[in-house]
Amino acid sequence: MKLRELKEILEAEILTDTSGLEIEVKMACGADLMSDVLSFTKARALLLTGLTNSQVIRTAEISDIKAICFVRGKKPPPETIDMAKEKNIPLLVTNLPMYESCGRLYQKGLPGCSEIEE
Amino acid sequence: MDAKEKISVIQELAYELKVGEVMKKEVITVSPNNLIADLREILRDNRISGTPVVDKGKLVGIISLEDFIKCLLDGEMEIPVSQKMTQSIQTLYEDEPLIHAINKFEKLNYGRFPVVARENGKLVGIITKGDIIHGLLQRLEHEYYEEEIKRLRASHFFEDIIADESRIILQYNIVGNDFKRAGESSSRLKKTLTRLGIRPQVIRRLAIASYEAEMNIVIFTSQGKIIANIQPRQIKLSVIDSGPGIPDVEQAMQPGFSTAPDWIREMGFGAGMGLVNIKKCADKFSINSKVGQGTQIEIIINLE
Question: Is the ipTM, as predicted for this complex, more than 0.90?
Answer without folding.
Answer: no
